[in-house]
Amino acid sequence: MMQKIQRFGAAMFVPVMLFSFAGIVVALGSLFNNPTLFGSIANPGTTWNSVWDTISAGGWTVFNQEGILFTVGLPIGLANKARGRAAMEAVIAYLTYNYFIGAMLTHWGAAFGIPNFDKIQIVANATNHGLTNIAGIKTLDTSILGALVVALIVVWLHNKYFDKKLPDWLGTFQGSTYVYALAFFVMIPLALITCWGWPKVQMGITSMQHFIVGSGFIGVWIYQFLNRVLIPTGLHHLVYIPFQFGPAVVAGGLQPYWLKHLAEYAASTKPLSQIASVEGFQLYGNEKVFLVPFICLAFYATAKKNKKKQTSALLIPAALTSVLAGITEPIDFTYLFAAPVLWVVYSVLSATMNTVMWAFGLRGFMSDGAIGIASMNWLPLWEHHWQTYVMQFIVGIIFGIITYFVFKIMIEKFNYITPGREADDEDVKLINKKEYKQKMAAKAAGKDANDPYIARATAYLDLLGGASNITELSSCATRLRVSVADPSKVAPDSQFKANKAVNVVHHGKALQVIVGLDVPQVLDEMTQLMQQSGGDAKVSTEQDNPYIERATGIVDLLGGNENIKDVIACSTRVRTHVFDTNKVAPDSEFKKIADSYEVQRRDDNEIDIVVGLDADQVVDQMKQLL
User: Most buried of 10, 341, 425, 560, CB within 10 angstroms?
Assistant: First the structure.
């Protein structure tokens, strides 16, 4: 269940990545059309104003079409096959759903508590009786929730029925058409339920908004803490997205709300805490600007003397990336594994810092690094609100210093192995999210995360698209035999080779990862990792047909398929010609397959392998592999 929730959270992040850029574009449009900063050229009606207004209009695309964006984005992250088609199916189903709602409210609006539906005009920046326009369709404003529900339904239908074989006379309805046909009829009761229940949900959301806004510093602290501490689980997406893009605090989300009122805030001399009282939840970019650099400084201060130079070379770029762009992954996941308690401490400190800033009147949209914060806050609002931002810097630096000493003391007291404190024979390195997950999986299994078999097993599992993408798993003498649900999720061969695989053989959804003679150990570790992650693949640890075992082993030791020119059976021998004898393994490797094997190397790149009386059967299997 946790894996499914994490996957859902990650899928929601697919469309979210577009909002940062769009937000900066809109903010710059507001900034450059501010007459206070740019004088009369920014007044309405001027060419300057018209140009930037046009650019801003483009930036508003993702905010004005949030529902469609999430409807497209979720299938990209969750569909097991043909993701592009799944996205198309989801969009048309979502539009159908809203057309059904509009038609039902037009005919029976009074029964659902919305009389005169067809006469209500949709006005920008108004509640509009809970209605909105989506792609020109007047419908109920279900925010991103309606989009998510429709997208999840379509993804389920797509994964289950996209490949379903229909009778020949219905062949034209296979694939996406069949999925949409099913979704079409599902959307009718869903639209009916929405018409009946959503107005009541909207009333509940309004009450929740009043509660959250009225919760003061307690609500702000809890939100900031959860949004930070849950990052390792991936569940933080479920915390901030309803606030940032959903209706948790205001209709449409806090980021669009802030950007819509940015010019108004810039022109006002009233404190931000008065004119933007609800905008206190999106302050979590502050830890990226103020705390992460001091964490890096603590790592440097506690590094071994002989590793300080190497440590600084890694930490300085990571700190700058955090401060400027708001990307903290290289730092976060490095100490998450080495010292999880530091992550909890960091989450407490960041939540407390943001809450103190909130108490001093800071409001705004600050989810990125300094570039994003400056464009959407400091630059457009500096003239009338500089005192608030000066206080923001003072509080941030104070908490940065506190964080430095807390981390330094804890690292030294508990001897946490943070960057620069590794063993002398180990290089200083930062850990990314993928490596963190691999190490945690090994730790959960009670094994050494540096065990070579575990390292390869976790790498291959990830490169094959994860446990959920594997339907069958077995091995032969030197190969992992894998069947996958979606071949498009399998990484390029080069990444397998980078993790010590000799090669990868593809046959549609069936793959063979040539691992070598330690394939049993790798298979065993993969099996355990899949069981822990909830995978339901059919796993076989029994040996395959012995002739296949021997044939695949010989092919691999001869340098692989591409190195074998021809092969025949000669009594008790496998006779083959190879292109490059340097690629052929030593004789001792052949004996690992069977002690009785003898290898005779002749002129003209001919190699004879004495295998016994079943040479014919072995050669037959080799020819199938070739």
Answer: 560
